[in-house]
Amino acid sequence: MQVKRIQRVVIAVRNLDEAVMRYSDLLGVRFVDYGEQEKGGVRAMVSEDWLVELISPVQPQSVAARFLEKHGEGVMGVAFEVADLYEARRNVENNGFKVLDEIDFGAVDQWSSFKEIILHPKDTNGAPIMFVEVQPK
Q1: Is there a contact between 29 and 52 (Cβ–Cβ < 8 Å)?
Q2: pLDDT value of residue 39
């Protein structure tokens, strides 16, 4: 499995608009509104460099809502970009890690394809790890 880079850090927040203002001031970056993501049950704002994503639940049973209920606001995931998500999933499972979810977002912004898998944090020493494969347009 070839890991290319850290793709983004995902931070779960209760009030997305307030968090965007705070992080914009703190980091000096502009966030793009990706709106409500039906597949994830969240509303997302992503920094232009794609290193920070702020998400807030819009559905009470979303992963973000459950995370906030259990842990409060904070880092919900660190996404690593991989060359081949199928190979990454095979490697993860062959090494005894559990995949919690696999999401195919389809075409997103400058990508014709955006897919990710989310690993179970019990298998990663509590670290919320995701692997992402993106294909440019």
Answers
A1: yes
A2: 64
Q: Which domain holds residue 35?
A: 3-136
CA–CA separation, 34 vs 60, rounded Å? 19
Tell me the pLDDT tens digit for each residue of 13-39.
Answer: 999 999 999 999 998 999 988 878 766
DSSP class of residue 122? G
Of 4, 7, 3, which Cα lies nearest the Cα of 77?
Answer: 7
DSSP 62: S
User: Considering only CA atoms, which of 131, 63, 132, 122 is closest in space to residue 97?
Assistant: 122
DSSP 8-class letter at 69: H
The pTM of this model reads: 0.86
- What is the count of structural domains for the chain? 1
Count Cβ atoms within 10 A of the Cβ of residue 35 and give its class: 0-12 exposed, 13-18 middle, 19 or more buried.
Answer: exposed
Pairing of strands 52-57, 74-82: unpaired
